[in-house]
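Hello Y.,

Per our agreement to keep a running log of every chain we model this quarter, I'm adding this entry. I've kept the format consistent with earlier entries: sequence first, then predicted structure.
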Amino acid sequence: MEIPSKYDPKNAENRWYDYWMQHDYFHSTPDEREPYTIVIPPPNVTGVLHMGHMLNNTIQDLLTRRARMMGKNACWVPGMDHASIATEAKVVAKLKEEGINKSDLTREEFLKHAWDWTDEYGGVILDQLKKLGCSCDWERTAFTMDDKRYASVIKVFVDLYNKGLIYRGYRMVNWDPEAQTTLSDEEVIYEEKQGLLYYLEYQVDDSDEKVTIATTRPETILGDTAICINPNDERFHHLKGKKAIVPICNRVIPIIEDDYVDIEFGTGCLKVTPAHDINDKALGEKHKLETIDIFNADATMNSFGMHYEGKDRFVVRKEISKELEEKGFLVNTEQHMNKVGTSERTKAVIEPRLSDQWFLKMEDLVKPAIKGVLGSDDIKFFPKKFENTYRHWMENIRDWNISRQLWWGQQIPAYYFGDGENDFVVSESIEDALKLAQKKSNNYQLTTNDLKQDEDALDTWFSSWLWPMSVFNGIMEPDNEEINYYYPTNDLVTGPDIIFFWVARMIISGYEFRDERPFENVYFTGLVRDKQRRKMSKSLGNSPDALKLIEQYGADGVRVGMLLCSAAGNDLMFDEDLCQQGKNFANKIWNGFRLVKGWDVADLPQPEASKLGIVWYQSKFNQTLVEIEDHFSKYRISDALMAIYKLVWDDYSSSLLEIIKPAYQQPIDKTTFDQVIHIFEQNLKLLHPFMPFLTEEVWQHIAKRTPEEALIIAEWPKSGTINSELITGFAFADEVISGIRTIRKEKNIPMKEALEVSVMNEEKVSKEWDAVIRKLTNVSEISYVDIAVEGALSFRVKSNEYFIPMSGAIDVEAEIAKIQEELKYTKGFLISVQKKLSNERFVNNAPEQVISIERKKQADAEAKIETLEKSLASLS
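Predicted structure for the entry above:
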């Protein structure tokens, strides 16, 4: 088979992905093998491939490919999340462009538009993952809104409700006025924002006295129903039992006492707005205050906003502060840093709002999940540091607000049959709901027409927390063959930013519904940042187009580039140059392959150097394999790749190929050729999970292979004998080779000119490497001597000194002058280091590491001076 002169990633990627798909290498069904299961963190159906996806899915793919090569039944389940808020927002925006308002549609009409949108635009990201080389079992693609997943969510809701764990309550919730839905605490991002603290005066009723309160939100005074003072604050004892008048709306409100008020903050007087602050709500309930909600769902003012009705809250803030100032109520303002909650999805500023919502009790549910991670090794986090984050959240968890005021999502299976607070039933179907409603109301005349299903949908995370079970239909059929075979899964690869949203909740649901962990290991990737450590985002314009990177550098180049700088749990400082490094590595492998395949092969005796080189490399390979396996066991993926990179680039390409390379226009012996091809195949196996396209392309060029012999299903290498003496011996020989090459370079001696080398063998090094040294440096003879060779240049490897006679080959006077100059500089450098080390202040105060570095500088300088003086003596 003719080997192209250059590797063409685009051609290889399309061809081999089609080949893998055609031969069903990605597909898994239960059998007698050990399963390896991994479920994709389902990207939003609205999503497109970005750098975070690239990193996360590259890691999942290499873990899956390696497991497949290790003989496991690898099953990587792909899928998508319906992303209630994001998708509904996109559908609403599209409808608005067409002149249609959501409010003018029925739920069924809107859902038809949502499904049309999903069918047209959804799933783009899954096709893009194929460009990256992801070997998902595409036949298993799941969607959180498909029939099986939908039914699973409804069944779980009903089960938890029947266990008394789900309840409906009128609570203060996080309200997103843009999406017009409630959010869980985890979906609110708190940001420090510069604002103003407004000092307002309230008239004390039936008095000339005024009290001053401080607020960051003057627009909410229209919802005030009390002023609160601390009973221990002597400044305000005389106000006990009195009333105050709210500015502008002139509402008379009580002055109450409660030690909740911080005497030191602001003025010591607190305005109480129970409808718009969770702490104020608690005070309102305690003191039986009126609750006045001043906002519409979109955060505009309602009728309680008086002449501000219909205006946005932030517009009102500016206008009402001006009115308060004009009417003499605003005393002054001052700069104030405030923590402002924003929606994780829409970025809108959150409003605390009282609302009827559905909640899941978490206190008892979390206990097995806490034990599974922190009380045992049932589930392991990599890096381990994230256990502390997990612990803090789980031990301080609040009930989960699971209802959303959206239509796109699983509709809450609660059916109302009356106006009473408890006139509802919960059931998986309306038919069963009717029977329950008839029994609960003792009214057997009710029909399904009398039932009205709850309008709200469930939080998207309430479907994805079941993901490891629901993808195998383990909720609807808890004893089916697939869930019993594939669950629990092995690895979860995800970002630490969704440890609460998803990871913790999957662990909770796993123990609740199957009484076992959902996965064994959780590998947390870092966030992808640019070289300035900024998080990559479209708004900053610092996020490269993922598909363009693949087009420019090849999928393998991008995979290697990202993984080289991706330590577990640490943010990745992405630099496009790393992709170029990955591409260069691919070209290095390709060119090395072409070199070997370009040699003529003959039945010749195997040279001693080649025999030694092959045996050495096999030991080096086995040693590196042990190192790689250790890295994988600790999920140090970047370190595993770097170990392979060095093995292939340095040991194989730069050393072994040079050792075995035949003389110019001469054939290579068949023994060596066969051995090096076998070694190259072993290298390709190690590389395949990281660089699947290039390695399969080369593998298939080495020999004609059947589909059963494809690299994707080849056997992962097994570690063999490690000859430490050989490895140490080559490392020493390599330093000798480097020393000789340095002298050639410095003295401009061409490789075609043979050299002679003499060595004072203080280290008693074996002579077995001499053949390799001679070949790689064009040394005609290596002789062993007891005394220094005069008139020769020398260099030192440990305590061995190597001499290269230079008579006639160099300008002796010029060389003496050069050595004298270098000796002068080195002695000066040594004096400066010695001065530093003799300074007691420096030695006593500097870190031990810094002192060690300085001492090493001293030792190196002293050794160099000794070598230079010997070289000078030999030339004089």
